[in-house]
Design brief:
Elements (H helix, E strand, L loop, with lengths): L10 E6 L2 E6 L7 H4 L9 H6 L15
Antiparallel strand pairs: 1-2
């Protein structure tokens, strides 16, 4: 089966959590990320509270709203 990212035929199937996923040997593409229930990057309220447009620097600081 061809890799959906680079179209290479140098792929293999790997057993992961009871299902077979495609892994490309050329570009490193893996379908494992699609099966992850809890992704590594989390966007929660705690992270949203850290950002403030008033704390932004540069041109965003003086932009009229």
């Amino acid at each position: 089966m061809a890799c959906p990212q680079c179209r290479s035929d140098n792929t293999k199937f790997v057993e992961y959590m009871g299902s077979k996923v495609l892994v490309c040997n050329d570009c490193g593409y893996s379908e494992i990320e699609e099966l992850e229930v809890f992704p590594e990057s989390r966007t929660g309220q705690r992270y949203k509270a850290r950002y403030s447009k008033y704390k932004a620097g540069g041109a965003l600081r003086s932009a009229a709203q």
